[in-house]
Amino acid sequence: MEHYVSIWPVLALALIHFFGTRLRFLGGVPRSIWLSAAGGVSVAYVFLHLFPELNEGQEHVQRVFPGEGFLRHHVYIMALLGLAIFYGLERTVVTSKQKRQAKEGKEETSPGIFWVHIGSFAVYNALIGYILFQREEGTLQQLFLFSVAMALHFVVNDFGLLEHHREKYQHVGRWVLVLAIFLGWATGYLVELSHTLIVLVTAFVGGGVILNVLKEELPENRKSRYWAFIMGAAAYAALLLSI
């Protein structure tokens, strides 16, 4: 695949951060069927395409880091770590909002928690940007499928971050995330990670995707559309299984 092909999905993801939260019809309660469907697509991609791909990469990782017992499952440990870290971040943000609302009557996080949260998602975006660059070594189909799943995932993330941080996300946070994905992509030209590290990074992102989707769908007050989530997951699963 020619170089610079991956810049197009990177630009698309950046535009989502620019304009995603302006799509007002996606906000509010009950949860938009489009956001639920987008979450279903992202999860379907992780389980049916990303994890099977990582299973193949696990063999390579085992050769580099041989071990017994739980150390034989390095890739899945990284996926679990990604899920656990983002779960911890979500709990920290929710707790911060509750405490600030009780003390100051403000339904938003403290400035410190805001920067920790946005900084974590900036790293997450940078890793996705780097993975997009690395996908140039594969087929155009692989790049397209990953890009579509991440684009819809970014829409879900945008509305989650906007709900947590409100004006701070609109004025500052989304710009940080845009910069991060470009920096992650550009790093691909400067730093060539080993195949082992790329597999582990991708596993970490996969775990983060699962948590970041489910945390938006599961809270009862969101009134999520389960049927839309299932339809999105089923449709993308059918596409992935047919090619």
Automatic annotation (TrEMBL):
Protein's UniProt keywords contain Transmembrane: yes
Keywords: Membrane, Transmembrane, Transmembrane helix
Transmembrane segments: 6-25, 32-51, 71-89, 110-133, 139-160, 172-191, 197-214, 226-242
Protein name as catalogued: ZIP Zinc transporter
